[in-house]
Amino acid sequence: xxxxxxxxxxxxxxxxxxxxxxxxxxxxxxxxxxxxxxxxxxxxxxxxxxxxxxxxxxxxxxxxxxxxxxxxxxxxxxxxxxxxxxxxxxxxxxxxxxxxxxxxxxxxxxxxxxxxxxxxxxxxxxxxxxxxxxxxxxxxxxxxxxxxxxxxxxxxxxxxxxxxxxxxxxxxxxxxxxxxxxxxxxxxxxxxxxxxxxxxxxxxxxxxxxxxxxxxxxxxxxxxxxxxxxxxxxxxxxxxxxxxxxxxxxxxxxxxxxxxxxxxxxxxxxxxxxxxxxxxxxxxxxxxxxxxxxxxxxxxxxxxxxxxxxxx
Amino acid sequence: xxxxxxxxxxxxxxxxxxxxxxxxxxxxxxxxxxxxxxxxxxxxxxxxxxxxxxxxxxxxxxxxxxxxxxxxxxxxxxxxxxxxxxxxxxxxxxxxxxxxxxxxxxxxxxxxxxxxxxxxxxxxxxxxxxxxxxxxxxxxxxxxxxxxxxxxxxxxxxxxxxxxxxxxxxxxxxxxxxxxxxxxxxxxxxxxxxxxxxxxxxxxxxxxxxxxxxxxxxxxxxxxxxxxxxxxxxxxxxxxxxxxxxxxxxx
Lengths: 312, 251
Description:
A: mainly alpha; globular; B: alpha+beta; two-stranded antiparallel sheet; 8 helices; about 20% strand
């Protein structure tokens, strides 16, 4: 599958935003109002900013962005529509929670809104993952680790952001935050390892003989057109697939390095803790963009069988 | 609505095509007549970008592949037209977030409303058959309409009220009809020739069927056509004797 940069930017930016938002919601639910106005306002604005930038960028790949509002209508059948609905609904508890949490308010109300925000943020990430996981045409996306991968990476990247914000505002010593961040990154590494191991073991299910109904070995001797068409460009993306194994390793290495940075900053960072935290942000950011690029580039669509692929 | 209509009741009309892989000669007449009709019909325009340049790209609703199958004596090359199969359970419809993609309850034709399509391309991801092509110039998805603007069009002569591809096919390799009616010509044709579905294991339940190439006749059983000819008995007429003499004289 062709990795559209707007979709990569959307899923990674909004994923981190929703992860951060969910953790802020849980922080508010357990600790009440934000420890300081500056910390509260900055982290809420960062979370909502990442989400909003992501959502806007997702409309850039549309042929008619001005009709995007129509996408809220078909939530009965379409995961893309459900994602749109969930994304918009999430703003309601998130904004109310943000106002109370940043400016101070009733702890019970903050807790209720915090939990609601966290749940809706995760629901939205889940719907995003289901857009891919529900497609019968791409077997690599039907793997069980696709949905956990989206959710865990959202939480992990969001946790790294929250950890960085906490250190920047002089609150690097919260043990729970460091543990959650490292656990999130560790879990992300495990889920991606399981996913890639699954892809390596995956045996082809459909052949060119199945696609054409001719059975047995089918060879293509003539393509229908002299240059690539939309189907080949969108679904038949092959560039750099041969580097996939190397890129997987780099991605996992970057995630592990981010984990080490969090650990190092947490254990003996002291005044340098923000430097370690920012390094973790950059490393995990590059890793998640690579992961998302690979997610598309490694996905083989059934339609490629009509264009010479022998089995998928 | 992108919810699918209930097509399970008996007698449900299922309009579709039956494509004969035995007689298709790959002349591309169906593809060009499809393009010609649909670039001014329901899906208009079907944009070609840089059509005469080095890297042309454009939306076509019908593509003709060339495949080779079989081994040894049974090896054969064939032409394989590929277009929307108007599936009974098309995921391209249910994934559509706007309702622009829909399946008609009355005849099962799968269509895209070009006025509400946002061009998200998700339907093309959901289709295993590559039937949907994005028109980058128009910003919406294009697909086979089964010439919905021809088949019911009373301004056309009755013989023209069928899809442009079927009308254009010089070898009669394309057939149009109601595959929901077991007694229709197309259903009977599918039955007698062993018509099949593409990728049946994916369970999209395509309506369009393909007819397999006929088995090759073996040389041993083949009877020369000349032996089968029935020649009239000699009647001994002057004309006959003249031609007989001429035949001998010249041979």
